[in-house]
TrEMBL record:
Name of one Pfam family that matches: DUF4279
Name recorded for this polypeptide: DUF4279 domain-containing protein
UniProt lineage: Bacteria, Bacillati, Actinomycetota, Actinomycetes, Mycobacteriales
Protein species of origin: Nocardia aurantiaca
Highest taxon, organism lineage: Bacteria
């Protein structure tokens, strides 16, 4: 690039003509590559995935027993929010959490595949639990530069929908703690 507008790019659409993008439907707000002050740095991304079930009436230990799956974390209704402080506020609901077990540099779709596979054998019980439980596929994503994304294939999303799970996507800005 020589820095002229004729050789610049709209970050949204591609080549520009003068100060405007060549696409008629672009509002022209995409930043030209020629105004970048420094090259993009290497970016580390992290991902995480878990299944979360929460209930006001079903205990976390009962969820484990009914699904036949041990939780990574369980919190019972009425237990202290802070185990180190017995006078802390009490939990209003029970929570059952099972992580994917994958490394945090794995593809987000891989977290989803592992968790769907984990629940595949207990679809009927999960459907019964959903009457009294909120069931979520909880996904986290973060990157050092704040940019990034992933693709979740349609067939994988159909599998998630077949389990009756809501999807919660938790996005972390640059500098967020990686130990999610």
């Amino acid at each position: 690039m020589n820095g002229t507008h004729q050789d610049s790019w709209c970050s949204l659409c591609g080549p520009r003509m003068g100060s405007r993008c060549t696409r008629p439907d672009c509002d022209g707000d995409g930043m030209s590559e020629d105004v970048m002050m420094e090259p993009p740095s290497a970016d580390r991304k992290w991902t995480a995935g878990s299944i979360r079930l929460a209930s006001y009436t079903v205990s976390a230990s009962e969820i484990s027993a009914r699904l036949g799956i041990v939780a990574d974390k369980e919190f019972e209704r009425g237990s202290p929010m802070s185990p180190r402080n017995p006078d802390s506020a009490r939990r209003k609901n029970s929570a059952w959490i099972r992580r994917s077990g994958l490394a945090n540099d794995s593809d987000l779709a891989d977290h989803v595949r592992v968790l769907v596979g984990l629940l595949d054998g207990c679809r009927e019980e999960l459907a019964r639990l959903s009457v009294d439980c909120q069931a979520e596929l909880f996904l986290g994503f973060g990157s050092e530069n704040g940019q990034g994304g992933c693709a979740l294939p349609a067939d994988l999303l159909a599998d998630v929908a077949g389990l009756g799970l809501d999807i919660v996507l938790d996005l972390y800005p640059p500098g967020a703690v990686e130990d999610w």
